[in-house]
Protein 1
Amino acid sequence: MSSCKWLSRAWNQFFFTGFSGESLGLLRMYIGCGLLFFHTWQFATVLSLNPFGSMYYFLEPIWYFKVLGIQYHIPILSFITYVVLMAATVTMILGKWTRASILVVILCIFYLKGVRDSFSGDVHHRYIIPMQILFLFLLSKCGEVHSRDASQHQFASVQEWEASWPIKTMQLYIALFYFWSVIAKVRVSGWVWFAGEGRIQEVLIKRSVRWGVTGEGELVKNSLSFELAQHPELIQIFSHMVLVFELGFPLILFIKSVKLRAFFLAGVITFHISTFVLMDVNFLLIPFVYLIFFDLVPIHQWLKTRAWPSFRRRPSIAG
Amino acid sequence: MSRRTVNVIIVLYLIVVWAAVIFRIDRFPLTWVPMYSVYEPSETISAKVWDNNKYGKGILVTHRDGTTSYVSSKDLNIPKPNFRRLYYSRIFGSAPPKHKQGNTELGTMNRWVRGLDEDEPNFSVDWEWRMFWTLNKTLRHEPSDQKFIVQMEADYQRRIYRKADLLKGNISKVEIQTRKALMEWNDKWLPRWEHEQL
């Protein structure tokens, strides 16, 4: 009985406290701004195509394209979808028709990601976290604060529990995402994945050699990766660091100190930058989602009262 | 939404995301395997070398009338990185990494859930048929056309390093191999073509 009560108290404490309606509204705005860059980065290859060129028949359509019977690509439709996606992201940031905008963003991502991943059958995981965040925004009251909708309608103030649960669920998902990564590695490959002469070394070699070798035997690109691959003892240290940070990621949910949390996330960002530079693993922009681990009210206040005015006061070139 | 409803939503959400992990569901927006997970220990590391000129030119194809030409990323109107995967992997019958992850160490429970026999893969795609389907359909060639593609060819170079040599810093000791792929159209695929069965 007492353990039940304790569990209920811990559940309520975790999911229903910690954030205000203002935090939720600001998070919607800042995550939306991050998404503007993320969408462009992710779908740039699709936008490089000829909008009136050939209609490509997908080699391996993604699962929902198979269900819907979508077999080929209509290039101009991807361009239109991208424009709609960006417009819906902007209205989501502004908080205009917020829920409908989020729904449109989700549908456009489904379509464009489906197209990109169906060309050759390689399904990427970069949109999984943003999609979970958008889904939780959709269920939340994020459009009732810091929004055009709020200035036009009279909403009741958003309670702490109403603002906290979507943010805390997002945090929990991200923590689990990294934690599952260890489970998957051990499940499929065993602990040998983390060995100095394991998977990391293999990827370093593959990704550095693939750009080719000059007549003198020098690598065209990524020579640093190749150099690192020759030091399994160093790789072993890095892989243990990866193991510790992925396994320990859920601990961030219990870190109260903002500085400590920022320090931990800075480490994770360094990890993503390193894997991008050394191994071409394209999770470079994903750290924008880590904003969910912070209360944005003081940060927004600082930007509004200090950073923005001082930026505006700078003498212009014309002046 | 009441607090009780929110509790139900959170519980359902957690059940769904954890079920994806337990039952190894990797269908967007759910996943059990966020990063590169498959590793098979080996004495050597084999690395493909991309040749811009070669894959830029495209896949060498033979038409039904015996003529040859190249099919490039521009002809298909697909991004270069995706075309690279066709050229260096699919034409060689190699599946995407996600398929390998889905097939490796599936476990008794997940085989049972999917009704798979012991050696039956979770993902299996007939890449040969798919390549002919994709290229011919995109270029609007029907099986009766003289320009229908009946053969595809690609080749690349790979460098094979022995881990023991790498450890000694001896990177000059490398074995260079050339891999060639040759795919040929099979008339047994005609019913699939007619019924558009992928």
Note: The radius of gyration of chain A is 23 Å.
Protein 2
Amino acid sequence: MLKRDLLLAVRNYNDVLIGLFFFIVVVALIPISLNESTQILPRLAPGLVWIAALLSSILSLARLFEEDHADGSLDLILSSGSVYQCVLAKVAAHWLVTGLPLTLISPLIGLAYNLHGEQLSTLFMSLLVGTPVLSCIGAIGAALTTGLRSGSSIIALIVLPLNIPVMVYGAAAVRSSINSPDNVMTYLLLLTAMLIIAVVFAPIATAAALKISND
Amino acid sequence: MSFNWFKYSSPASFYGISHSIIKAASGIAIILCIVGLYWGFAKTPDILTDQKEYYRILFIHVPAAWMSMWLYVTLVFWAVTGLIFNTRLSYMMAAATAPTGALFAFLTIWTGAFWGKTSWGVWWDWDPRMTSMLILLFIYIGYIALQNSIADTRRADRASALLALVGVICIPVIYLSINCPDPYQCAALHQQSSLKQIEKNILIAMFIMLFATWAYSFAIITHRLRSIILEREKRTQWAQDIVRDKA
């Protein structure tokens, strides 16, 4: 399942690039629009990079179950015994094509925002642990809106408020790497705790939502 | 003696008693509101610690804030009841509760803005409590939007019920993440409840207003519920009879 989805994503590498470039463009727009000196950029970086990551993760959510719903393979998934595993595989594939590329490029973004050394690695680590949570929670929203005409716009409304804690702690980790490096580990561990809880429970909710949507 | 708990879970039998519920609840709401506001304006001191007359906004602000949270709990209760027992009326209850909850969340923020302007000199501050209320409003809006954008009623009910349930699990986490973003400062940020230090008459007026808003919610939600019942049961004979009698 994971392999199939990844294969589909790689064949349609356009989607991966769109998500990635959306992230880069948003992150680049902010210094341009603020027209501020590079002095304050490091202070803005944690929040802005995390908001851009959140938006870019939501961008591709609408299509997560849409094609499976359209061609009927969702029925097959739901009637098979392993809905949980299938959902987990879909979420993992979503993260591998949206969250991971964005995480890999984040040190470059950090450099553009005048971060260095330890701060860059914290930014990278926080996105590495945090973006899978965004995919997990986002999948619930995607499952609830599968097959709706206004699906893509409503996903953002549902998912953004639920993702606030991830963003708060992700940005806090990067911020503390600038101000008080001793605390970084605490935030990363909190993010990891969220990741574990999300990976265990979010697919259950997603599976239940898929059953409701595909009734 | 056996009592049939599910008797009034049928929309038809509930519709029968709903009118008297609305009458009683709105009567109580009006009386309590008059008494509460009178008490709040006439019997209370003009100064609360360092605040002057304007502190009286709390007679609207605090009950609205409590009701907005309490209504979310009832909404989730009905949503879960619906998911478990598959009763149509429970889903209708949840759907009828959401707009009132959202209204109270909005009222809380609005009156809070007035209070903030007079007391702190700003309309809005990113204070943890204010931010949590804003996010509660967002969650209400997400619930209503999801409910409205699904044409199939059964699916709309169950999908939004699941969303409400996910929301109720996330709310404590969201609350903590805003209230206590720094694990090292939690203790310092914790705010003691100020209920015990408040003058007795202020407290009485506040609780009268709380029951007034509660009765108001009861009346208005039942009222909305009647419309939802008629709309959804429009194919049944009894609903058509009612509409014909009214016309």
Note: Chain A has a mean pLDDT of 85.
